[in-house]
Amino acid sequence: MEKVIKSDAEWRAQLSPEEYRVLRQAGTERPFSGEYVDTKTVGVYSCRACGAELFRSEAKFESHCGWPSFYEPSESDTVTLHEDDSLGMRRVEVRCARCDSHLGHVFHGEGYATPTDDRYCINSVCLTLQPAG
């Protein structure tokens, strides 16, 4: 996968202020406010910043946490995981492997009835959905 590297000015020109705040500054959109929280459309979710495929609708599930949740990425190498000790808690940040944009966080062992027991909690503003067919 070819990496996408842009200057801060290039990202600011490409992204809306909210997209920039979340994708490039590791922000978080308000819970239950995102475009894809409740969508059940079948398709592929890609990175809004670079277009890389990240998740498939088959792995999306209702976690009732306020953000779209997936139990696994579409391929193991589409995202990277990073320790995040910000805000006084220990979490695992999820980033796009292609452009290093912040996507959200992954949580393990919460008891969801999914094949992996992982919850990739992803900001809607970081995604673009391409419906199947």
From TrEMBL:
- Cited InterPro entries: Met_Sox_Rdtase_MsrB, Met_Sox_Rdtase_MsrB_dom, Mss4-like_sf
Catalytic reactions on record: L-methionyl-[protein] + [thioredoxin]-disulfide + H2O = L-methionyl-(R)-S-oxide-[protein] + [thioredoxin]-dithiol
Gene Ontology annotations of biological process type: protein repair; response to oxidative stress
Q: What class of enzyme is it?
A: oxidoreductase
Q: Which GO terms describe its cellular component?
A: cytoplasm
Task: Give the EC number(s) listed in the UniProt record.
Answer: 1.8.4.12
Keywords on this record? Answer: Metal-binding, Oxidoreductase, Zinc
| Domain (MsrB): residue spans on this chain | 8-132
Key word Oxidoreductase present: yes
- Top-rank taxon of the source lineage equals Bacteria
Cofactor(s) in the UniProt record: Zn(2+)
Residues spanning the membrane: none
What GO MF terms are annotated?
Answer: metal ion binding; peptide-methionine (R)-S-oxide reductase activity
Write the protein's name.
peptide-methionine (R)-S-oxide reductase
Q: What organism does this protein naturally occur in?
A: Microbispora catharanthi
